[in-house]
Design brief:
CATH topology of the largest domain in chain A: nicotinate phosphoribosyltransferase
Number of helices of chain A: 15
Oligomer: homodimer
Pathway (chains A, B): Cofactor biosynthesis; NAD(+) biosynthesis; nicotinate D-ribonucleotide from nicotinate: step 1/1
CATH superfamily of the largest domain in chain A: nicotinate phosphoribosyltransferase
Helix content of chain A: 25-40%
Radius of gyration of chain A: 26 Å
Low-confidence stretches of chain A: none
Family (chains A, B): Belongs to the NAPRTase family.
Number of strands of chain A: 19
Pfam family, one (chains A, B): NAPRTase_N
CATH architecture of the largest domain in chain A: Alpha-Beta Barrel
Mean pLDDT of chain A: 96
Number of domains of chain A: 2
Catalytic activity (chains A, B): 5-phospho-alpha-D-ribose 1-diphosphate + nicotinate + ATP + H2O = nicotinate beta-D-ribonucleotide + ADP + phosphate + diphosphate
Shape of chain A: elongated
Largest sheet of chain A: 7 strands, antiparallel
Structural class of chain A: alpha/beta
Distance between the termini of chain A: 50 Å
EC number (chains A, B): 6.3.4.21
Chain lengths: 452, 452
């Protein structure tokens, strides 16, 4: 019986690869095809309800690339597949990525045809990275692209991640929090991720605690004494009577410190209005009202626009699985090999060959006026978004900012979105212009490959 | 600057917990509340398009539970949160789960109100497991519940997982494959997962290989020579002309071994019909046609019912993120504490108190006739689905079958689904009956807690 490991070990990431990458690598190797290739990670279309993708993970993935290697044990396991030649396995044993990576900063809003990252290097080496890079970047970008919408809907009110139980696995539970932080969320319930990614960790009680105590008030008393300023969960049995009893209790014992109450079911708007009124009339204006329970950006927007007196939101499922858009159609495409532009000609899949740059030009209002997607060596007005982060297989010193700085930069970058792109509804609009050079290159390349 | 680990380490899983679990554990500890609690993992509703959940992961999660522990480093990190008392941290330092787990076999189709697993033990210990258990089981159950539908649609034709690039992170890419195998998929493109979970690994070439070669035919020749019986990707430039050239080539060089072609874009049904005709007319009836590219159960069902001559399917995004139902609304609820049944009374959230059993009764046709959800100690006709897998914190010897046996049992279990539940459309029907005892317990408990 095989041992089935509960989590993927960092040292095993080189085997976390699609078989065809290895098959192609062996074919390149056996044919002596070792010229430089450029692969571009981009998307042709947005998920249905999105106006942009918040690109995350594309800089940090180089941390994995730099250390990727095949151990003797990996080689033995690959041998067992009976598909690889001993000399190719020797090549794998010596494998360290020797190429370059260009990436947009963490937390950059992007539009169709704009690369999140480009990888350049000997073709077999880059090919081997495809699935791992796509997986790594897709997770964070999918979760960030969803969760940033929650911050738009909440209009400045704190939004806290409660999603660990719903994210797809342990890696998503953990690294998703990095994406939420880049997207502007306020905190997380997830202890390890909060500690690892320097995000405030929140959480007080579940219904189970209230249910286990002899009486709801016992639960509240225990918490207020252990955790002064705590938030009490009030909907286990009956929300209004719970709040009523809290009010009486705080009247009798004014030294008790309660910071807030949390509503987790029912008509949140109506409950919030009633609870606020009860609390205010008792002079407890400092007690905050938090809401959770099946919230997404639409429900939050509705709660906010209805004027519901809710001070913050806890969100789980919606952001944990990026519920209405769990997949971004990221493609990792060969765009140049041996100095020749490359593209395929599959129906309905428009792409542009060659290494690229994206120039983002802001208007006088500080918002994105135009993005020019150009050849890498072209020069346009604006800020070039793709920046070198890895060269000759090593992370470029200082090229990747510490996470706290990335978060600040991401926040500024999100602020450059024109107001209409912050809408929860699709605007079906793009600021992207393709340069004349790229258009010509596409025509020429199409003509060349169609002669084949 | 914090080190930001690229993957979660197995040894750190004890910190992969929602803060409120730790807060509640400290509260239970400080109050001396250490009676036995029963928590039940179940769901009240199915995702929109589903007729059942294929429960996976609920037995295997005990592998994680058994080894869960807090190291000195973990304790230090928890100290930094400034929320925990030294004596409670000592309690954590000594923590090893000492309770019991009951779970249904891996790959069991379940319906609303049927527990996937129940955990029993000192309340603080069980509470600590909540988020980890939910996350672990949710991943596999969500992906299995989606991917089993692909096998229904394909009606016996092989379906291969191509989804690594889309799954939410590395853990999902890896452990998802275990779920696909339990759901009946034929293979995976993912090397590490295929090796770890003993599933055949498939994959030949991407468009990039064809594009990098001087000519499409070069790509095909290289592959046929390196990988006899290979499957050639034919849609990089023009599918029909690629197939035309393959036919001429195999006519000229009959010793060349090509096993199949893969279509990855365009009108797959029409392309398959044309290619099959071309191949058959050339006497190449043995060459199989594989299809991929944005496939899901609906597209596969349509292709199959249209009679498209497709021999197998590669599926990525649809199963990788369980696209139309990425989240199952799993709940982990306290149902008993200190021998008293427990439940909450939140609006619209029906649940039943007390430890449970599910008796599955098959009809004479071998299909599910009725499931009785009962109290744990009740006895009904049929097979009890919840079985003890962990006792006193240790996995019960022999209680968890090796994966190969789990897969066989899952296949049989899936076969017990009445035909209508295998429909891709919702049947809005459930074979579940709640026992009289549980209904009475619910009434009594509601009455008791509403007096609070």
């Amino acid at each position: 019986m095989l041992k089935q490991p509960p989590v993927v070990r960092e040292g095993d990431l080189s085997l976390l690869v699609d078989l065809y990458e290895l098959a192609m690598a062996q074919a390149y190797w056996s044919e002596g095809m070792d010229d430089t290739a450029v692969f571009s990670l981009f998307f042709r279309e947005l998920p249905e309800n999105r106006n942009f993708v918040l690109a995350c993970g594309q800089q940090n993935v180089v941390g994995i690339i730099e250390s990727l290697a095949f151990s003797d044990e990996h080689i033995e396991r690959l041998e067992s597949l009976d598909r690889f030649q001993p000399e190719f396995l020797d090549w794998l044993r010596d494998f360290r990525f020797s190429g370059s990576v260009y990436a947009v900063p963490e937390g950059t809003p992007l539009f169709p045809q704009e690369p999140l990252l480009e990888v350049e290097g000997p073709i077999a080496e880059v090919q081997l990275l495809e699935s791992l890079v796509m997986n790594y970047v897709h997770l964070e970008s999918a979760l960030a692209s969803k969760s940033v919408r929650l911050t738009f809907a909440a209009g400045g009110r704190p939004v806290v991640d409660f999603g660990m139980r719903r994210t797809h696995g342990l890696d998503a539970a953990h690294r998703g929090v990095r994406a939420y932080r880049l997207a502007g969320l306020t905190g997380t319930s997830n202890v390890l991720a909060g500690l690892d990614f320097n995000m405030p960790v929140y959480g007080t009680m579940a219904h189970s605690f209230v249910q286990a105590c002899p009486d709801e008030m016992d639960a509240f008393r225990i918490y207020a004494s252990l955790y002064p300023g705590t938030t009490l969960l009030v909907d286990t049995y009956d929300t209004r009577s719970a709040v009523d009893r809290i009010i009486k209790w705080l009247k009798d014992e004014p030294e008790v410190s309660v910071g807030g109450i949390r509503l987790d079911s029912g008509d949140l708007a109506a409950e919030a209005v009633d609870c606020r009124k009860m609390l205010d009339e008792a002079g407890l204006t400092d007690i905050k009202i938090m809401a959770s329970g099946g919230l997404d950006e639409y429900r939050i927007a509705k709660l906010c626009s209805s004027g519901a007196p809710i001070d913050g939101f806890g969100v789980g499922t919606a952001i944990g699985v990026a519920k209405d858009g769990p997949a971004l159609e990221l493609a990792f495409k060969l765009t140049e090999y041996a100095s020749l532009p490359r593209m395929k000609n599959s129906p309905g899949k428009q792409s542009f060959p060659g290494p690229k740059q994206v120039y983002r030009r802001l208007g006088t209002d500080g918002r994105i006026a135009e993005d020019v997607v150009s050849g890498r060596d072209e020069v346009f007005d604006g800020t070039p978004l793709l920046r070198p982060v890895m060269k000759e297989g090593r992370i470029i010193e200082g090229a990747i900012a510490p996470l706290d700085d990335q978060v600040k930069a991401a926040s500024k970058s999100i602020d450059t979105l024109p107001e209409r792109f912050r809408s929860l509804d699709p605007v079906n609009e793009s600021p992207v212009v393709i340069s004349e050079f790229l258009r010509a290159l596409q025509r020429d390349t199409l003509e060349r490959v169609s002669k084949k």
